[in-house]
Each structure stands twice: as C-alpha cells, then as structure tokens.
Amino acid sequence: MKTLQRPPLTGIDGDAVLAEARRLIARQVQAPARRAFLRRSLTLGGLSLLTGCSLGDDVGVETALMRISRFNDAAQGWLFDPNRLAPTYPESKITRPFPFNAYYGEDEIREVDEDSYRLELAGLVTDKRRRTLAELRAMKQQDQVTRHICVEGWSAIGKWGGVPFADFLRRVGADTTAKYVGFRCADDYHTSIDMATALHPQTLLALTYDGAPLPPRYGFPMKLRMPTKLGYKNPKHIQAIVVTNTYPGGYWEDQGYNWFGGS
C-alpha cells in the first residue's frame, strides 16, 4: 500500500481541498437532505465555517480536512448497521491469485514462527492468558467468500476461514460495551476498530485462506477479516489485541486516513 501516502500540500488549491473534503464525507452520508446541505456548504468559506478552521495556510487546510474526516467517522458509525451482512459469493468467483497488499513490498513479508507464537490480550479482558495457534484452531470456525475493497480503488474476492471474532471476545471475557478494539502486528502495523464492527457476524479472526493455513503473504498466523471495512482496516500478522475505551489510532489513521474506514 505504498501508494496510499498523500503528498504534502504546497499551496492552497481550492478545488483540490473541496474535492478531498467531499470525498471524505459523501460516501457514507446517505440521507439526501444532509448530503445536499453539506455539498452546498463546501465552498471554501463553507468549509471554513463547517470546521471552524482558518484556511489561510497549509496547517489550516490540513486541520479542516482532519475535522471533516473525523465528522465522516462519526457519520459512518451512526449509519453502520451491525446486523447488515456484506455480500457473499460462490467459490467460482474467487480472484486467483488473490493480490498481496501491504505498506511494504513482497520481499519484506514478515515470517512468524508457529511454535513460539502466542496471541497476547490486554485491556478490558477478563482472561488474559496468551493463546497458541492450536488453541485458536480448536475453537469453532466458519468460512466466508467475500470481497476485499482497497482504498486504492481495486477489489478482489477471497475465501477466509476462522473464529468469529464476537465469539472469541465473549470467550475471553472482553467488555463488549467498550468503545475500541486495537491490534498490534508482527509487521509493525497497528490499527483499531469500533466495537460494533468487532461484534459483526462476518468479522473473523482468519486462520485460513482458501481452505489452507493462512500463508505469510496474507497475514500468517492470523489476520482480522472484515468485509464491512476497507482493506487497510484488516490487520495481518496479529500479535496482540487490546479492548479499551481510549482511542488507539492506527498506522494510516494517524497519517490522516479515515478511522472508521467502512467499505
């Protein structure tokens, strides 16, 4: 995902600012009246009033866009239906080969030792015992054939298998009234999600791909598979999970990408 990095602003380009702001808020704000109001508001003056920021310099523009992004996060969270399922597909629709995707190249894929691997748990969790892969594989599993949607504009269909994350959270005594679940990964990636998405029936701790153990290029020993989220929200090589009420941020989110990241 190296192409995700946004170049720094070198001047105030009004058209670019408005296009970025509209992109950040329009996708999930579906109510026609709200969408019409926001789009009418997004002149440079309207953007300034909407965010309370001065657009007289690059810092002001970045601050305005960050506030619009946070507004978009809140709107997506409000619109998210925890009972609505993402589309599923027959195995004949699987994209072969399924693309590799990360913030680094394939020659830098991290290798995790299966025998020494232990999943760490922290935060608002009753049972913080570290889990082996054998223990995770012994839990009830389910498969799904769903579409991965990348923020870069491409998509692919894959078959994932693993432990329903809601079942896992309840099994370890996680506080499911907490706001966030955060993930720390062996490839130095980190991200976090809202609890409603964590409990969604299609959110999986994925241990297999296409019926076989998850290969390193797809995130061995496990990744979080969420067809309701964009690709950068699906962490790979997961080492630790934390349940918390303190905002954990994320690798791309800390650089200005939307935190909610709904697909």
Q: What's the layout of helices and strands?
A:
Elements: H1 14-26, H2 32-41, H3 44-51, H4 58-79, E1 120-123, H5 133-137, E2 142-149, E3 155-164, H6 165-171, E4 180-185, E5 190-194, H7 195-198, E6 204-209, E7 212-213, E8 223-225, E9 238-244
Question: What does this protein look like?
Answer:
With 263 residues, the protein is of the alpha+beta class. It folds into two domains: 8-79, no CATH class; 91-255, Oxidoreductase, molybdopterin-binding domain (Sulfite Oxidase, Chain A, domain 2, Alpha-Beta Complex), CATH 3.90.420.10. It contains seven helices and nine strands, in the order ααααβαββαββαββββ. The protein has helices at residues 14-26, 32-41, 44-51, 58-79, 133-137, 165-171, 195-198; strands spanning 120-123, 142-149, 155-164, 180-185, 190-194, 204-209, 212-213, 223-225, 238-244. A hairpin with a 5-residue loop joins strand 2 and strand 3 (155-164). The longest helix has 22 residues, at 58-79. The protein starts with 13 loop residues before the first helix and ends in a 19-residue tail after the last strand.
Brief descriptors of the model:
263 residues, alpha+beta, Sulfite Oxidase, Chain A, domain 2, 2 domains, five-stranded antiparallel beta sheet, four-stranded mixed beta sheet, 7 helices, 9 strands, 26% helix, globular, disordered N terminus
